[in-house]
Structure formats: structure tokens, C-alpha cells
Amino acid sequence: MPRQSPSLLTAGLLYLATPASPTKLAIASAGTFSVLTLSIGGLPASSSDNKDMDKNTMYIGMIMTLYNYGIINVQGDFWYHKTLYQYDKHPFHTPNPYDTSFASGLNTLSYYNWGFTFMRVRIEEGVYIDMINLDTNAGIASPGQVARRSNIQQVAKFIDANSAGNAVIVFGNTNSLYTRHKDNIRLFVTQNGLADAWVKSTGGKTPAAGATPLTCPNGIPFNIGCEDVDKVFYRGSPIIHIDSYGFYYDTSRFLSPEGKPLTERNPVRAEFAWSLKAGLRQSDLFGGPHGTWFNDLVKLPTFPRLSSITLRGGSRLDGLTLNLTSGQSFKHGGTGGTVSSLGLALGEYIVSVKLCWGKRQGHTRNFYAHATTNKGNVVQAGKTTGNCATAVAPSGYGVVGAYGQDGNEMDQLGFIYAQQ
């Protein structure tokens, strides 16, 4: 099915992980998880060589559950989508009401909840990884190559704009090979700072453009030395260290009872370990998935300290300004509302922020903020609602920045803490 632009996964859900009680960070400071990218090949039987797709999709769903994959990105999930969801037991699925080829065919099944577009997955409190599913244009003739290069460039720009300061994993069908000299798959490395899990697992050396293709054989590959178009790219962040410690072609797992492959290409699995870096932490995100992404994490100096905080609010929380002792100032939201400011004394820092959110013109956004320091001083703005939570910094940490989404008001908000 030809495409002129990549299909990016859209969950279309509001961020709901907003506990009503104070949130205490670092329930876990390290862990592991796995990701899998898999092409279902779910076109109608009349347009496919495989006449048993409904039964095969049932097997695929059962196998995905059996092997306990953490997050699965699927492509080509068209006509047999309901069967896949019926037999897979992952608790979180992207909604897809369509069973025809007019849908994108991209879906995600996960043991972890997420928030909104392109899936910002919440691994732990304050630990987020942006995950992108893609299915780029196929074809090695000129029109296909041009479209595919544009696809990859579009995704790279999307990451720059929407994942600044965040850990990222891109896994799906890139339709690209390193040995194909007109493919620009290296852009994820050079522009976005991502690493390829396959390249790392095969010695760390990327195949040269124009070299002999490392074609995977039909059936089950003998090892991971062959290159497939289904890839897994990843990076950490200033807060989270992520490392891939295993890469696998799971073809042998996805076989029918007769021993035939159930998928179009080799299912690709990557195993990851994550841990929190010393000195910085994040709160959860509160509010809704609207506005423009921002993240102060990428601009923080070494050993940041807060000198003052300013909140603007009236009926809602309009804006937030955080001034550091280094002279840097982070301003978010709009300029409306009444100004409330608090200067911090030497040794004083903000240890908790209560936020309340609600609906405004159909969008969820923050209505109220109340910050408290370790000396008991407070500053507040806006109006409370029935939906509130308090972000509490770990012991010895204080607010030094923020991240989330804003416009004329504060749509979504979380806080960055530094050790004091």
C-alpha cells in the first residue's frame, strides 16, 4: 500500500496518570523492559498470498502475550485488528475503530500506560520515554526513495520539536537499509542523537552505504548479522540512562502450528535497561495534551539553584517564571492573570507544588498552582478544581525547572528537581 508520508502513531488520549495524593518519586530508580516491532501483513485474504490471516493473527496475539513483551509496535494491522486485540492480553492498546486498509495500520500494545500523541510512555513516576511507531514509503525506484527520505526527515524534525530533553525510542518499519546509499536512515543518529540497537549488538560498526546488502534469508535467520528494514533506535536524556543490552529476530517465536512464519518480515525485539542519573529528577506531568512542548532540562546549568518563582493566574493558571541563581530565566505560558512572586532565601528551595486542572473550551489545562518551600513559604495563583495532585520532590531536592506544554496558558506541567 503506497504512502507519500510516514504514518506516526497517534494514541489520541488525554494524560490521566494524575494521582489525587502527593506523588513521591523514585519508587524504582532502575529497571528493564523490552520492545518489539512486528509487521502483521493484515490485508484481506483476497489481496494477500496468505489465506489464513485471521487464524494467523490469532496466533500472533497469543504469542505476543506468551512472551511478555513490554511495548509492541505493529504495522500492517488492517482487516484482522479485532482478532489481534481479542487474543493479545496486554492491558493498554491504542484505539483503532477501523478494519480496512484506509486506517494507518499502526498500533501499539503495552504493559505501560501512556499519555497522548506519539505515545509518551510512563515507565515510572517522573520517568517518561517518547515512543514512535512508523511505516515509511516502500520501493527502491526513485519515487519511493524520494518519498522515504522525506518520511525519515519528517520524523527527525518531529523528534526535534516534540521530544527535546526526553528519552526516545523509535521502532517500526523504516523500509531503509544502511547499505542502500540513497536511504537517509542515519539521520536519526546524526540529527537526533539516537543509537541503533542492531548496530550496537553487531559490534557497533554501521554498514557502509553502497556495500553489499546484508540480506536476511527467507525463514528464520541464522543470527542477527543480517540487516532488516525493521529497526529500533533509542536515546536517553539528562535524567534517564537507557542502554540496549540485547537485539533479537524473534521469527522462531512467531510460527504457525505447521512451522510457517506468521509475519511479513522478521519480528524485531530489543531489550533495554534504564536507570536514573544522579542529581536530577522529574515529577509526573499534570494537565492535558495541548499547546507546544517545552523542557527546561536541556538548558539547565551545572548545579542549578532557584532564586525566585513567579506564578500568573486568574480563573486559570496563565504562566510560570523560574529564575535561577545563574541568571537564567525560564518563562512558560502567557502574560495574563495576576502576578504572584516569591523570592528564595539562601538555602531555601521549593519542595512541593500542588496543581489543579480542568476543562477550558474542550481542552484540559492547569487552573491552579501552589508552591511550598522547605522554609514553609508559599506562592499560589489561579483557582482550585476538583482534580488536584501534589508533586513532591525527593528528599534534598528542589524545583529548578519545568517541562510540559503551553500556549497562552499552562496546558500541561511537570517539574524538574535538582539536588540542593
Secondary-structure topology with pairs:
Layout: E1 23-24, E2 30-39, H1 53-66, E3 71-75, H2 81-87, E4 92-93, E5 107-110, E6 120-124, E7 127-132, H3 142-162, E8 167-173, H4 187-190, E9 195-196, H5 197-201, E10 230-235, E11 240-249, E12 268-276, E13 280-282, E14 286-287, E15 292-295, E16 306-313, E17 317-324, E18 329-333, E19 338-343, E20 350-360, E21 363-373, E22 378-382, E23 387-392, E24 397-406, E25 410-419
Parallel strand pairs: 1-23, 2-3, 7-8
Antiparallel strand pairs: 2-12, 3-5, 4-5, 6-7, 8-10, 9-10, 11-12, 13-25, 14-25, 15-24, 16-17, 16-19, 17-18, 20-21, 20-23, 21-22, 24-25
Task: Provide a short characterization of the protein structure.
The protein is mainly β and 420 residues long. The chain has helices at 53-66, 81-87, 142-162, 187-190, 197-201; strands spanning 23-24, 30-39, 71-75, 92-93, 107-110, 120-124, 127-132, 167-173, 195-196, 230-235, 240-249, 268-276, 280-282, 286-287, 292-295, 306-313, 317-324, 329-333, 338-343, 350-360, 363-373, 378-382, 387-392, 397-406, 410-419. The chain is elongated and about 70 Å long.
How does this structure look, described?
It is a single chain. The protein has five helices and 25 strands. The chain folds into two domains: 254 residues, Endonuclease/exonuclease/phosphatase (Deoxyribonuclease I, Chain A, 4-Layer Sandwich); 140 residues, Jacalin-like lectin domain (Vitelline Membrane Outer Layer Protein I, subunit A), CATH 2.100.10. The N terminus is likely disordered. Strand 6 and strand 7 form a beta hairpin. With 420 residues, the protein is mainly beta. The strands form five sheets. Strands 4-5-3-2-12-11 form a six-stranded mixed β-sheet. A five-stranded mixed β-sheet has the order 1-23-20-21-22, with no helix packed on it. The chain is elongated. InterPro entries: Endo/exonu/phosph_ase_sf, IPPc, Jacalin-like_lectin_dom, Jacalin-like_lectin_dom_sf. It comes from Rhizoctonia solani. It holds the Pfam family Exo_endo_phos2.
